[in-house]
Specification:
The complex is a heterodimer. Chain A is α/β, with parallel strands linked by helices. Chain A has one domain: Rossmann fold (3-Layer(aba) Sandwich). Helices cover 32% and strands 21% of the residues of chain A. A five-stranded mixed sheet of chain A has the order 2-1-3-5-4, with helices on both faces. In chain A, helix 1 links the parallel strand 1 and strand 2. The longest helix of chain A is centred in the C-terminal third of the chain and has 19 residues. Chain A starts with a strand and ends with a helix. By secondary structure, chain B is of the alpha+beta class. Chain B has a domain of 94 residues. Chain B has 14 helices and 15 strands. In chain B, strands 2-1-14-15 form a four-stranded mixed sheet, with helices on one face. A four-stranded mixed sheet of chain B has the order 7-6-5-10. Chain B has a three-stranded antiparallel sheet with strand order 11-12-13. In chain B, helix 4 packs across helix 5, helix 4 runs antiparallel to helix 6 and helix 10 crosses helix 12. The two termini of chain B are 29 Å apart. In chain B, 55% of the residues are buried. Classes of the chains: A alpha/beta, B alpha+beta. At the A-B interface, helix 2, strand 3 and helix 3 of A face helix 1, helix 4, helix 5 and helix 6 of B.
Chain lengths: 151, 488
């Protein structure tokens, strides 16, 4: 079984880098030849390239929701996203559409995808560090990912 | 009467906001466009080693890291007063051409094609790449994925790392390619040329042979007579990697042509109270407001602008397509915003042809890939064409090469004024007294801005990884009439 833990984010845009930070931490705590820990700053179609040929993928990223509190961590499946498969990003398609596309083209898609999303406070200021609320959530997120791998 | 404040200080919650005010007869009085802006880059860069900037700046945007990497590397050449070796320049341009193939492919099939293939009034759930592939076929869909994948391999092979190259150095590049790699790159380049030709055929079949679409392309709603900016080589042909910046007016006359180090003599920035965005404009012409025409300093830097600003394409097949486009559109310059999608495909073909030229050059496997700088650094300006427009990196350092000041003008920034005007015009033309405002309005506004493929800060990849957009319409008394949103 090939498993991928993928941290997504921009490491120089404050909380937007939390996914990468969590993935890096997970990597230091793991010693399992079945699990690859990786990071990417790509989105949409490029994300598709990263996840093909794995059986199970755990994605970690930042999120901003209307009601959310900074530092909250959500565990989601692709089906949780309630929006339609509409183009909203001016650059790339969103994750859900990318997954659908992969299936449509018979690419070797993972059977199982889990997403851990950390509610971000600031994703528009340049900084290599996260805000305190989000920084504090990192250990918890790491634990959740490790539990997911064991379970 | 309610007062609605357009306040740029309000946190925009990661989404773009378009606010439309109506007159009492229901037509549009005014339109405002705001996006959250990435802040603090200058401060973030201070105190850093200039040689790190190609690595740092390529992190600014997950979509065009190679563009930042290249502009930054060229700024370093200037900063350290060192000329790259001939082989290094070719390797840089080869990597850059492969990047253009991936980027323009992505944009056309993900963003442009859905409107044309599915139709602008198709429901949102169908108006996306899935709908496109459903219509044009799985084989073409596979070719899109494959072209990107192969060219990403080229970028990784030349640049040393996937997506974020560790490649550019002042005076050269960090690694050479060997013959085995060269052969594979050549094969991919040739396949990319075929793919580009196929894409242009798709555009021809679906858009150009469809009168309704062609009329839309040529319509007044999507026409804007602004100045055109792009990099050109010594023969005034389009070049993405190097050359001089050329500006040509809506009347077809050259306004100016300047070396990167002269950019501040030609470009100034306009500040407006309702947004943090600053609007670059041409100093020689002056700021006359958000209007087009020869007397307004508003300019565009897009694939179409590049083709307008140049005298042609440097490769034969792309030149043929260039001629065909201008014949169809009635001559140069073409001021039809939707034709940007066509220009993008012509650039795709040029990028692939250029890859073939460069990879077949005997010097491409040379190991003479760096000139070591000897002079003390002080100031450097590097300009490349990012897919989204002319990209400028400007660094000022102390004599150790530590950044004191840094200014970037990213591709889309050049287009802020024109982009705003396009949106405004679409809103004005589609909101009419007595006509019901529907979701279709949202899509018409989107069609006005998609040709620019704007790189706005809300295009970060925080889940759900999309550009949430909110359009709010107020009547003449300040009452909210309608709110349309997507992805929020």
């Amino acid at each position: 079984m090939k498993i991928l833990v993928l941290g997504i984010g921009n490491p120089i845009l404050s909380d937007d880098g939390v996914g990468i930070k969590v993935a890096q931490e997970v990597g230091t705590k793991l010693n399992d030849p079945q699990v690859t820990v990786s990071e990417t700053s790509a989105a949409g179609l490029s994300l598709l390239d990263s996840i093909i040929d794995y059986d199970k993928v755990i994605i970690i990223d930042a999120i901003q929701t209307e009601e959310g509190k900074a530092g909250q961590i959500y565990r989601m499946k692709p089906g949780n996203f309630s929006f339609a498969k509409h183009i909203s990003s001016p650059h790339q398609i969103n994750l859900v559409t990318a997954l659908e596309l992969g299936k449509m083209l018979n690419l070797n898609m993972p059977q199982e995808i889990s997403i851990f999303a950390v509610e971000a406070k600031d994703t528009t200021s340049f900084s290599e560090g996260c805000t305190p609320e989000v920084e504090q959530a990192i250990p918890e997120a790491v634990k959740m990912v490790l539990d997911e791998l064991v379970g | 009467m309610k007062r609605i404040t357009i306040d740029p200080i309000t946190r925009l919650e990661g989404h773009g906001k378009i606010t439309i005010f109506l007159k009492d007869d229901g037509s549009v009085a005014n339109v405002y466009f705001q996006v959250p802006e990435l802040r603090g880059f200058e401060k973030f860069s201070e105190g850093r080693a200039a040689e790190d900037m190609p690595q740092i700046t390529q992190r600014i945007c997950g979509v065009c890291p190679e563009a930042h990497h290249m502009a930054s590397t060229k700024a370093l050449d200037e900063l350290f007063h060192v000329e790259p070796t001939s082989a290094a320049k070719k390797l840089r341009e080869l990597l850059y051409s492969a990047f253009y193939v991936t980027d323009h492919t992505t944009h056309f099939y993900i963003l442009a094609a859905p409107d044309f293939v599915m139709g602008p009034d198709a429901p949102p759930a169908e108006r996306n790449i899935l709908g496109v592939i459903g219509k044009v076929g799985l084989e073409l869909g596979g070719a899109v994925i494959n072209t990107r994948k192969q060219n990403h391999w080229v970028i990784q092979t030349i640049g040393g790392r996937p997506i974020h190259p560790c490649f550019g150095l002042p005076g050269g590049v960090s690694r050479a390619i060997n013959e085995e790699e060269r052969v594979q790159i050549e094969e991919i380049a040739k396949q990319s040329v075929e793919f580009a030709k196929l894409s242009l055929k798709v555009f021809d079949d679906i858009v150009l042979k469809n009168k309704e679409y062609l009329d839309m392309v040529l319509s007044d709603t999507f026409t804007q007579k602004s100045y055109n900016m792009g990099l050109v080589d010594d023969n005034n042909k389009v070049n993405f990697y190097d050359g001089k910046v050329r500006v040509v007016g809506p009347d077809g006359k050259e306004l100016c042509k300047y070396a990167p180090r002269e950019y501040l003599e030609h470009i100034a920035e306009r500040v407006e109270p309702w947004t943090y965005l600053k609007f670059p404009y041409l100093k020689k012409v002056g700021w006359k407001g958000f209007v087009d025409g020869n007397d307004s300093g508003v300019y565009r830097a897009t694939p179409l602008s590049r083709l307008n600003a140049a005298d042609g394409m440097a490769t034969p097949l792309a030149q043929e397509e260039y001629d065909k486009m201008y014949t169809t559109l009635g001559g140069k310059p073409a001021n039809f915003t939707l034709a940007t999608h066509w220009a993008r495909l012509i650039e795709l073909l040029y990028a692939a042809e250029r890859m073939v030229e460069l990879v077949q050059d005997p010097e491409i496997t040379s190991t003479d890939i760096r000139n070591i700088p000897k002079a003390k650094p002080d100031e450097g300006i590097g300009i490349v064409e990012a897919p989204r427009g002319t990209l400028t990196h400007h660094y000022i350092t102390d004599e150790r090469g530590v950044i004191k000041k840094c200014n970037l003008i990213v591709g889309t920034t050049n287009n802020y004024a024109a982009l705003y005007m396009s949106i405004k015009k679409a809103a004005e033309d589609f909101i009419k007294p007595g006509v019901k405002i529907t979701e279709g309005l949202l899509n018409r506004i989107e069609m006005a801005w998609r040709p620019y493929d704007p790189c706005l800060s809300c295009a970060t990849h925080a889940l759900p990884g999309q550009l949430p957009l909110e359009v709010t319409i107020y009547d003449d008394r300040g009452n909210e009439v309608k709110k349309l949103s997507q992805g929020i």
